[in-house]
Design goal:
It is a single chain. By secondary structure, this protein is α/β, with parallel strands linked by helices. The protein is built from 15 helices and eight strands. Helix 2 runs antiparallel to helix 4, helix 7 packs across helix 8 and helix 10 packs parallel to helix 11.
Length: about 450
């Protein structure tokens, strides 16, 4: 790895830009430029050129008829025949070129989606510019953690907490922060500082496998990300129950919210849906407590929708954008529909930048539409006219934090009501689990 930046060795332009980025929550990445290696496009280009040469320099309709042995060869083809031949050949080239590009995108899709080190940056937070290396640079109290996930992969996380002196008689909420697809947790430090100071919350933020100082595990995949997120959530719950950080801060298992930006929102939705399934299946016995809710910022509906947004030509092939061709579907619509159908005692906040150049704001509106079919106890949808994909917190200005705080206030105000509702939900799950046991094959046989 390159040595850290200093006065005698200034950072490259893109790295240095991190410290003067105007408060962006992550580095900007041109997703169209990701994934397609130079070799892939060179090979694809040569194939397309070959097709052009073959189709337009090769035999025309008249020559083909002569070579087929026709006794009465047409010396001069009619203009309609030539036009039809030309467009047929052109269609061949377009279709074959599109298929070649589709093959390149399919084989390189995870390189396009997951960008641990955007151009001009390093993977590890330790290699970031000084103010983006650790919470120490911002004077934030924190714990540097390595959390082991279900498959044994260890992921790096920071727990930035409110000291006991700031908590007084209150127990602050803890946000489990799932960041976007580009860069490491250090790139989010300015945003974390603002959350810590303006919302008075604890923040537990992790780097997914393959990112930052986390281990590579099996590589960046949807399955791996969900294991990392669930492992981090389990670690938090167990730490709270054991009183691990009781000497430093206050936390409660019924005061946890999942925050996700961009693909992190898809992670948050899937994690909450999985936790709900586990709770309903187990009837509450041994299941992890459910988070109080979700906070989603500039999150997409499904990866197939994003693929069409980034590569418009795929719109005619959208029906193909599903497993096995799409390795990681990240379908938030299905998970959110399950949540709204089976659970109403939770809270959800959507924060949408209307100048988002990556995720169309219409996709946030679509997620809101799903939520309205059976509204959570608290549902807020805030739109910020100047907000882009990575700078909604700063471009939103004071209104962003006022809106966020308003949501947090309603979360606190509905605690008692939601707590009673969760007891009923747990009882419902327990009854269903007992009914399933009563109709299991073993029970039927014994009867």
């Amino acid at each position: 790895p390159a040595p850290p930046c200093s006065v005698s060795r200034p950072c490259p332009p893109r790295v240095a830009a991190m410290s003067t980025s105007g408060g962006k929550a992550a580095p900007d990445v041109d997703l169209r430029a990701q994934g397609g290696s130079e070799r892939s496009f060179v090979v694809g280009g040569l194939i397309v050129v070959g097709l052009v040469v073959y189709n337009f320099v090769g035999p025309g309709p008249t020559e083909a008829i002569v070579r087929d042995g026709e006794e009465e060869a047409i010396q001069e083809a009619q203009w309609l025949t030539w036009v039809m031949w030309f467009f047929f050949r052109l269609l061949q080239i377009v279709v074959l070129g599109a298929l070649i590009l589709l093959v390149v995108l399919v084989t390189q899709q995870r390189k396009i989606i997951y960008v641990p080190a955007p151009p001009g940056t390093q993977r590890s937070p330790k290699e970031n510019p000084r103010m983006y290396q650790s919470p120490d640079a911002w004077g934030l109290p924190y714990e540097d953690l390595m959390i082991e996930t279900e498959d044994g992969t260890k992921v790096n996380a920071w727990l930035i907490y409110q000291p006991l002196s700031a908590c007084k008689d209150q127990v602050p909420y803890t946000l489990v922060y799932f960041h976007g697809n580009a860069g490491n947790i250090g790139h989010r430090l300015e945003n974390i500082r603002d959350m810590h100071d303006k919302l008075k919350v604890n923040i537990l933020i992790l780097d997914y496998r393959g990112y930052g100082d986390s281990e590579d595990g099996g590589g960046c995949t949807q399955k791996g990300f969900i294991m990392d997120a669930l492992g981090t959530y389990r670690f938090l719950v167990e730490s709270i129950n054991s009183g691990k950080y009781a000497a430093k801060t206050k936390m409660s298992t019924d005061r946890i919210l999942l925050f996700g930006r961009s693909i992190g929102g898809a992670v948050a939705i899937k994690v909450m849906a999985d936790l709900l399934r586990e709770s309903l299946d187990a009837g509450g016995k041994g299941a992890l407590p459910l988070p109080a809710g979700l906070i989603l910022e500039n999150t997409f509906t499904a990866l197939r929708d994003m693929a069409v947004q980034i590569f418009p030509f795929l719109s005619v092939l959208k029906w193909l954008l599903a497993p096995p061709l799409l390795y990681d579907p990240w379908d938030s619509t299905d998970s959110l529909a399950f949540l709204t159908k089976r659970h109403e005692h939770w809270c959800c906040c959507l924060l949408s930048g209307l100048q988002d150049e990556i995720v169309p704001p219409e996709q946030m509106t679509a997620l809101h539409g799903i939520l309205k079919t059976r509204r959570p106890k608290v549902l807020k949808f805030f739109r910020f006219p100047l907000g882009g994909h990575n700078d909604t917190p700063t471009k939103g200005g004071a209104e962003y934090w006022i809106s966020f705080s308003k949501f947090m206030g309603e979360v606190v105000a509905t605690e008692d009501e939601r707590r009673e509702g969760l007891k009923a939900l747990t009882a419902e799950g327990a009854a269903a689990a007992k009914a399933d046991e009563g109709t299991s094959p073993e029970t039927s046989k014994a009867d």
